[in-house]
Every structure is written in structure tokens, then in C-alpha cells.
Amino acid sequence: MELVMPSKSLNSRIPAYKAAFSNGELQKTYKNLVGVVQNLRTEFSKKYKSEYSIASVLHGYVDFTYFYLQNDYLKKKKLKLAIVFNHKNVNFELWLLGQTKDVQVLYWRKLREVKWVNKEAMPEYSVFEAPLLLDPDFDSFTKLSESIHSQFKTLSHEIFNTLAEYE
């Protein structure tokens, strides 16, 4: 396997990296956004404790903060749902994940005609990534939380129906 080198050298990118961290805003904002996801996870744990097992909050590099949800149905299929905060797009998404790459490929192929699935290319980490909340209002956690719970309820129901339909 050949290592692909970035278009710019690492040394040439360091000044922009240092500048992004220089005033502390990036670190504070990141910490606050992760806190929002942690609070959502706590709420989901309480609200859905009889329906799902809910994993701890996980961090991608600087790109994603997320937690998994799994119920017996998903477990049998070797699937998980993930509530994902996409830092690049500053939005929330609901991902369907396979426990292994093989499971992910199997469901991506099986569900290719479904509206959330990119027919051209399978996402790197999921079967599909469905929008959950595209324009979050971070100044009102209550409103943000209500919107995410409402969207999750609707979208997860739709996902379960779709999975059953494609069995």
C-alpha cells in the first residue's frame, strides 16, 4: 500500500494550525459542543433505557462526536444506530452502522435503493448517514434536545420499517 502524501507539507500547515488554537475559542467551542452531545446521551439513556442500550460518547478525530444505540433487533442484524455530531457541517446526523465492514457492505448493497443511501459510494464509517438536525440552535438546549428526540423517533421508526421491508 502506497502512502499518499498531502498536497502541502505538514510543516507548511503548522502556522494555520497554531493560529486556529491561538485564542482558545476553538478549544472552548469544541468542549461545549462535546458537552451538548454528552447531555443528549444522558437524556437518551434515561428516555430510551427500556428500548436501547446506549454506549458512551466517542470522539472521532476532530470530525465527529457520537454515541451508539442498539436494541435486540439491531443486535441480531449486527447493526447499530449512532447519533452523530458532524463538526465540519455543524449538524446532527443519524447513522446506520454495521458492526464489521462486511456487515456494512452487505446492508449498503441491500439498501441501495433507499433514499438515505448513496448509491455511488458507501460512506467510510456507515451504511448511510441521514440528516437528523441540520441547523441546531445551541443557545437553547431544551429546543435542540426536543428537535433531536422528535426527529430520532420519526427517523428511527422509518429506518426500522425500511430494514424490515428489505429482509
Could you give a quick summary of the protein structure above?
The protein has about 170 residues and is an alpha+beta fold. Helices cover about 45% and strands about 20% of the residues. The protein contains 5 helices and 6 strands.
Q: Would you write up a description of this structure?
A:
The protein is an alpha+beta fold and 167 residues long. The chain has helices spanning 10-22, 25-47, 72-77, 101-110, 141-165; strands at 53-54, 58-59, 64-70, 79-86, 91-98, 128-133. Strands 1, 2, 3, 4, 5 and 6 form a six-stranded antiparallel β-sheet that branches. The protein starts with 9 loop residues before the first helix and ends with a helix. 24% of the residues are buried. The mean pLDDT is 94.
